[in-house]
Here is the input.
Amino acid sequence: MTRNAERDKLEAERRKTQLIEAGFELFARYGIESVSLSAVAKKADVAASTMYKYFQNKASLAVAISARIWSDVWTTSREQQGADTLAQMDPYQLFELYANTIIGLYLERPQILRYSANYKTYIRRENVPEGMLGEHLDPLRPIAELFLGSCKAAATGTPVRTDVSPEKMFSFLALTMLTMAERYAQGLVWTEVPKGAHADDLVQLKNLLLIWMKGE
Here is the structure.
């Protein structure tokens, strides 16, 4: 690749990142439906015409934002553990890693959970084609694959319930934990606990799901 081509590639990636970061900030604060692409371009200090070189519509930007934020979250989580440690974890430890990451987001970066909830509502409402959504599912696949592999190994180690397939088990665990954290972050759960003070509830949910994994 020539020097000019490399420079152009880096510049394109920089602008794309600017748009993703600006879109996330605006969408998380005001909702995806309420923010125009021109507003995102202005926030990113990018010409509106340039926006369409990277994202042809709001749905494509929303998917790219979801993919980027979750890729950052799960890449960081895996790197903190290390490949060797992850490979030795049983299903319970892997789910705890997942759950603790979600609880950490609730405590430190709730805007990610609020965006995630709004994003899922948006793609359903807009009937975003399934073919567009693969990008936002990719970041979790490495942990899902580790979980499925550990379930097979657990037959001779720490067993998990067998009346549910590992695939369905991971989907149920992941979605239950994430959905409740999203709702708490949005303030949509009616309790006497002040908004933003539900970390203990999420820890309790994690513990209940760990018990469920055993089939108890």
